[in-house]
User: Fold this.
Amino acid sequence: MRKLAAWCLLSLAVFVPTAYGQKKNEVAVATATPSKAPEPEAPSWPLEPKAFRGAAFGSSREDVLKVIGVTPLEFHGITIGHAPKCHQKGDEWTCQDDNFSVAGMVLPTEFLFADDKLVAVFVRFQSESFDKVRDIFLERYGKPAAVERTAIKNRMGAEFLDEDDRWMGDTIQMHIEKYTGTIEDGSAYFYVKTWIAKKLADDEAAKKKAATTF
Assistant:
């Protein structure tokens, strides 16, 4: 009888922990929360443009001119439409469209191509139209990442308050300036960031190389 009782106790010692352990595992599995993938980070500039006037950055010169509608048509030797003013310098091309207008404003626009890819756009306007252009940009592209205001003077000593609004995205950098060169002219410009970084690096390397020749 004692041996039977001892055997029963031994059985409980061996099997009860195992059964308890299984129940623990079952409960743990049933109540475990599935792992959740991390939320993607919000873009630094939600309204960052991928194109200008429908022409995607990175497009070829031929494709851009077709999209913006300034490619002239040849018909029996007669040119129909206005031809863009394009010129080449090294591996870069610049094409200018002087007939672009928005909200009653004429905005001459230059498209810059490097290795036959659209890498920058420059838009000119009269500085007195700055507020109007800025409002259009705010509506289209959202608030700028930075606004810089600087007091400037003309040759006559008159003082003006310049403004430079900047947007920074993953691919594109954009500025709009009230005064560019003169107090009559303002400008907006879009850059592909990889292009401008390479251009600045190349310019710096060229300066260092030139310095070694003296």
User: Anything to note?
Assistant: The CA atoms of residues 72 and 81 lie 5 Å apart.
